[in-house]
Amino acid sequence: MNSVLVTGGAGYIGSHTVQQLVERGDRVVVIDNLSTGFREAVRGASFVEGNVGDIELVSRVLEAHRVDAVLHFAAHTVVPESVSDPLKYYGNNTGNTRNLLACCARAGIDKFIFSSTAAVYGSTEAGVADEDTPTRPINPYGTSKLMSETMLRDWCATGAMRHVILRYFNVAGCDPLGRIGHSTPQATLLIKVACEHAVGKRPSISIYGTDYDTPDGTGVRDFIHVEDLAAAHLRALDHLRAGGDCLTLNCGYGHGYSVREVVEAVARAAGHRLNVVELPRRPGDIPKLIARSDRLREALGWEPCYDDLDLIVRTALSWEHRLAGNSFRAASVA
Ligand SMILES: NC(=O)c1ccc[n+]([C@@H]2O[C@H](COP(=O)([O-])OP(=O)(O)OC[C@H]3O[C@@H](n4cnc5c(N)ncnc54)[C@H](O)[C@@H]3O)[C@@H](O)[C@H]2O)c1
Ligand SMILES: O=c1ccn([C@@H]2O[C@H](COP(=O)(O)OP(=O)(O)O[C@H]3O[C@H](CO)[C@@H](O)[C@H](O)[C@H]3O)[C@@H](O)[C@H]2O)c(=O)[nH]1
Predict the structure, then answer these.
(1) 190-221+255-288+306-332 has which CATH code?
(2) Which ipTM was obtained for this model?
(3) pTM here?
(4) Topology at the third CATH level for domain 3-172+222-251
């Protein structure tokens, strides 16, 4: 039986995808250097610790595990860090993706699913993006991903490979059964940070900017539950295995919530007030970004199961309680 290679499978989104692949019976091998991932998050799959840019190592794994498709999650993901250390991002996100593609070329692998990001769009006029919206990233993280997209399309244009590029919007929530979750240290993402405050790991939650041209003055984002996003990867894999064409697809629900609405949802889930500090805008933030995601639904037959802010927040908070060592209601959150 062939295997799927999942790079970055010990990380937040990768581990949820590995879990779904394993649960439906796919054979999976993970390569992860554990720079931000966790060995214990990889359950039921083979695990190789190493760098996805290491051509010898990756080639060995592709051959030994008879890999027929690659899901490429491994990357650095912190936007402000990409601004202060852009070469780190071009090296890991773009350079290492080039090496991985070279290994695939050598091994004759013809199916590739790539973790891209809404950050490739930058600031759009109406705060909404479909896949044909011009890509104008405003930070090196977004550019490093866009460069990888271009490289992948150019390689696929030779006929050697087919791809699905998934552009994730704001990913949040955790496995509703509490087996794995979002453990990234020094997290900066809103829902994770707000939940860390709710369980007492942080003294407050900051709202960056209350003077945007949005209904309540705070930023608006399209939050997608990690389980729905993982499910999109499985459908993308099936699409390629069935001989489907190359695709680029937004991954979001098509509607958004404001930062203030998210903070209120976390307070509701926690059952107590939060200490909210209103601060000026965070440099580099855009007011609003919502996905047009009709193409994902039409091309892959994907339908969300967790499109509910309270549910997203409850699963995230439940995991945060587990990390903090508190008792929690993991089995009942869904
Ligand atoms: N979290 C989001 O909201 C979001 C949004 C858009 C896109 N993405 C993309 O999704 C993917 C996964 O992100 P995540 O949130 O799960 O982050 P994460 O940091 O939890 O996962 C990344 C994983 O890749 C591993 N890794 C990094 N560089 C590696 C290398 N050179 N070799 C081997 N392993 C390496 C890390 O150890 C980690 O396990 C990334 O490509 C990211 O850019 C995430
Ligand atoms: O403590 C916080 C954290 C965030 N925010 C605000 O919450 C919104 C969302 O911010 P965040 O959760 O950091 O996500 P984004 O900046 O939208 O970017 C994320 O979502 C992108 C996809 O849209 C990914 O590509 C990026 O990797 C990921 O950082 C923004 O308005 C922030 O200003 C706060 O007010 N307080």
Answers:
(1) 3.90.25.10
(2) 0.97
(3) 0.97
(4) Rossmann fold (3.40.50)
